[in-house]
Each structure stands twice: as structure tokens, then as C-alpha cells.
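F.,

This is the one I mentioned.
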């Protein structure tokens, strides 16, 4: 992960050499290159490429020797895409996209080998030409690769940060814990919200490194928090920090072991870190999630289902999973005041969750009236702008020191 994604190539330098194996393709950002093949012992130019072109894309399929040499005609800047990154993207793609991709790749490889067999530079050229994407598709792909590459660097350069939003035990108005929410402190674009970069990270597979990083930082934060907080201000237990995870975090099989290793390395009790996963994750990977979550519960970490009510699953379906807490999505809380049926729904979700020994957290509390209704309904914990917006750790420490419980009817 230390490799820089952008490379500068001097005029005359060889970026790719015929016959050598390679595991990267490149997008030419600026400058131009020539494509050369060896014929009768001499290099022969079969074409040139300018900004926006994809070069060496065969390396995305396999590690066969390069079929051409690529040499810079002037100083160039290129973006590198490694086969591993590409494989991650294909792996996470929609099954139809994946299938079409495989067919195109196989045909493309066949076409290249046929044209090489015919030994004709013109055929070789036309095969190279087919790899050129055009228009919107190309721009979208380049943009996604750029964000992905920038994100990789962001992780290395410590540009990712965690913000913390308090979760309040609404029955006694004590601080129950905080949810850790990721932001990207971009050097030029400022603070970028997770809605922009988490989906790209999920698509490319980078999310697993980011989640690992987030868990480590959350562990450090919970220790700092415990050292700073007045026990009078919290409930029966010292405050927890909950960390969000994605479906990709579960796909490599040893999720629970990795969580356990981080907690051990940081010296943090599993009781002080809660895991948040969305309802849709359970629907996508039910077996893998069930197994991983059972192991996590055995460690002693709580598991919360995030955005409950948005994923079309039923509470009876969720009962198969070892879930300790249900987080009711903010859309239900928002509509409680205007729509009486929402209120009935929230009340019955709380009742059913309790009958299954699950605790309930309501998300998106923006007013005293919402907090009052939820308190009356027996909801344990609430989170929302009315208490506080997500904030950097330093501000969260000030928040706990100055915590004056608001009056709720
Ligand atoms: P989420 O996990 O449901 O987090 C709650 C979101 O609601 C946060 O948005 C929070 O700032 C916002 N919120 C909290 N209270 C209120 C309120 O009273 N009103 C309104 N309108 N919004 C409120 P944020 O921080 O932009 O995060 C968006 C989503 O990004 C999160 O939704 C979560 O799905 C994802 N995310 C954030 N951090 C991480 C992370 O570290 N890993 C993963 N995998 N996903 C993350
Ligand atoms: Ca969450
Ligand atoms: Ca949520």
C-alpha cells in the first residue's frame, strides 16, 4: 500500500517492455506514448496514444508476457491500476456486470492472440484499438479509479478521521456511548462526508483496510474517553464506541479474529466496542454474517443492526442472528410527528425488540418532542442532532465534561 498511484514518465522512458510480465495497467493522464512491437529483431511503431488512453490492460486478465513495448514520446503522467485492485472491483461488481466483463475479456484475449498469430501490425493495432473505451463509461471509470487511488493515499497520509456522535440513555439522560463516523479531511476539498467515499471504498475493496484502521482509532478513543469521563455522567457501564462495518468486511472469513486481534493489541475490553452493521448486509451475506457475528458475540462485543426498517427484513428473520441492539432508522423517527401510523410502527418495533431481548436505539432525534415520545415508549437510547452532531474526539471530550442533561417530558 506504499506504492504511489500517480507516476511521472520522462520522454524516452519505457513504461512497459515487450516480453516482460506485468501486473499493472495505466491510464495516460498527460503526454503521449508510442506502441512498439518487435519484428525481425527491430522495434516497429504500430501506434501512439494520448491522454485518456488505457495502456497495458492485458495485465488485468493474467500475467502473460507483455505483447508490446510502450515508450514515452514526451514527459507523461500516468495513473496505475494494479491487477489486485482490478480483481477486487470485478469481485464486488453486480453479477451481470461480472459476467459481461468476463466474456469481453476472454474475447479480447482471443482477438489479441489471433492477430499476433497473423503477425500483422494492422491486426495487432485494431485489437489494441478495441480496448479504448469512450465517453461517459470511460469518465466514470477514471473518476472511480482516481477517488480510489486518492483514498489509498488518504489512508497512508492520515487524512481519514473519525467523528463521534453521542448516544444518550434517554431514561436517565446519561451518556451511553458514541458512534464513530468516518470523514475524509481532503487537503484541497475539505471535509468529505462518508456518503461520498464509503461506496467507492466498498466497491474497490479498500473498505476492509479502512474499517481495520477505524476500529484501531475507535479503541484508542474509547481509552481516552474513559480516562476523561466523570463516572457520574454515564450509566451503569462506561461509555462504548460503536464502529460501522460493511458487507465486504465479512467476505474474507476471519472478521471476528481480526476484530479480536485489534482489541487485544489495543488492550480494550470487547464490551467497550459495539459493532454496527446494516440490515441489508444481513440479507446479502446471511450465512457469513451469522457465523462472524456469533464469534463476535462470543468475544463479548455487542452487535447492532443499523438503519432498521429500511431493508425489508422482518424482526422474526433478524431473530436468527445474534443481535443485541436494534437501531431504528431516522426516517421513522422523522415521520412520527406527522404520521400517526409511524408512531404505532415505532412503538411495536420497540415492543417486539424487547420481547426478543434486544435493546433499541432511535436515530435522528432532532427535537425534544421526539425524545419525549421515545422515552415514553420505553426506548433505551437516542442519538441525533438534538443532543449533538458528530464531532472530533477533542470536542467529544469537552462535550462529556460539560454534559448537562436536557429536560425531557
Ligand atoms: P449511519 O451509520 O446510519 O450514521 C448515521 C448518520 O446520520 C450519520 O451521517 C450522522 O451524522 C447522521 N445523523 C445523526 N443524527 C442525525 C439527525 O438528527 N438528523 C440527521 N439528518 N442526520 C443525523 P454520516 O456521518 O454522514 O454517515 C453516513 C453514513 O455513512 C453512515 O450512516 C454509515 O452508513 C456510513 N459510514 C460512516 N462512517 C462509516 C464507517 O466508518 N464505516 C462504514 N462502513 N460506513 C460508515
Ligand atoms: Ca451506523
Ligand atoms: Ca443508521
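My design for it:
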Amino acid at each position: 500500500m506504499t506504492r504511489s498511484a500517480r507516476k511521472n514518465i520522462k520522454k524516452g522512458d519505457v513504461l512497459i517492455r515487450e516480453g516482460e510480465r506485468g501486473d499493472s495497467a495505466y491510464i495516460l493522464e498527460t503526454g503521449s506514448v508510442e506502441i512498439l512491437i518487435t519484428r525481425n529483431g527491430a522495434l516497429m511503431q504500430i501506434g501512439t496514444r494520448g491522454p485518456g488512453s488505457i495502456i497495458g490492460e492485458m495485465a488485468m486478465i493474467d500475467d502473460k508476457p507483455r505483447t508490446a513495448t510502450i515508450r514515452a514520446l514526451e514527459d507523461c503522467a500516468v495513473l496505475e491500476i494494479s491487477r489486485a485492485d482490478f480483481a477486487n472491483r470485478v469481485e464486488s461488481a453486480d453479477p451481470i456486470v461480472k459476467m459481461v466483463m468476463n466474456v469481453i475479456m476472454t474475447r479480447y484475449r482471443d482477438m489479441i492472440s489471433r492477430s499476433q498469430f497473423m503477425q500483422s501490425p494492422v491486426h495487432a493495432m485494431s485489437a489494441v484499438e478495441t480496448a479504448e473505451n469512450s465517453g461517459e463509461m470511460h469518465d466514470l471509470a477514471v473518476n472511480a479509479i482516481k477517488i480510489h487511488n486518492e483514498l489509498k493515499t488518504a489512508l497512508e497520509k492520515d487524512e481519514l478521521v473519525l467523528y463521534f456522535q453521542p448516544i444518550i440513555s434517554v431514561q436517565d439522560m446519561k451518556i451511553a456511548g458514541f458512534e464513530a463516523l468516518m470523514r475524509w479531511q481532503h487537503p484541497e476539498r475539505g471535509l468529505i462526508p462518508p456518503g461520498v467515499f464509503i461506496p467507492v471504498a466498498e466497491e474497490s475493496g479498500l473498505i476492509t483496510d479502512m474499517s481495520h484502521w477505524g476500529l484501531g482509532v475507535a479503541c484508542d478513543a474509547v481509552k481516552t474517553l474513559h480516562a476523561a469521563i466523570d463516572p457520574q455522567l454515564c450509566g451503569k457501564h462506561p461509555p462504548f464506541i460503536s464502529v460501522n462495518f460493511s458487507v465486504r468486511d465479512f467476505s474474507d472469513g476471519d472478521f471476528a479474529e481480526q476484530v479480536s486481534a485489534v482489541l487485544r493489541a489495543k488492550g480494550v475490553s470487547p464490551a467497550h466496542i459495539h459493532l454496527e452493521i446494516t440490515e441489508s448486509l444481513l440479507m446479502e451475506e446471511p450465512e457469513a454474517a451469522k457465523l462472524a457475528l456469533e464469534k463476535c458475540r462470543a468475544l463479548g462485543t455487542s452487535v447492532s443492526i443499523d438503519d432498521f426498517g429500511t431493508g425489508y427484513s422482518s424482526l422474526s428473520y433478524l431473530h436468527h442472528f445474534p443481535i443485541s441492539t436494534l437501531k431504528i432508522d431516522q426516517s421513522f423517527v422523522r415521520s412520527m410527528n406527522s404520521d400517526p401510523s409511524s408512531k404505532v410502527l415505532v412503538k411495536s418495533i420497540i415492543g417486539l425488540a424487547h420481547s426478543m431481548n434486544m435493546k433499541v436505539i432511535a436515530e435522528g432525534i432532532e427535537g425534544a418532542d421526539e425524545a419525549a415520545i421515545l422515552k415514553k415508549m420505553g426506548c433505551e437510547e437516542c442519538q441525533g442532532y438534538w443532543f449533538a452532531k458528530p464531532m472530533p474526539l477533542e470536542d467529544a471530550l469537552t462535550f462529556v465534561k460539560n454534559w448537562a442533561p436536557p429536560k425531557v417530558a
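Residues 306-307, 327, 329, 363 surround calcium ion (ligand 3) (CB under 6 Å).

Talk soon.
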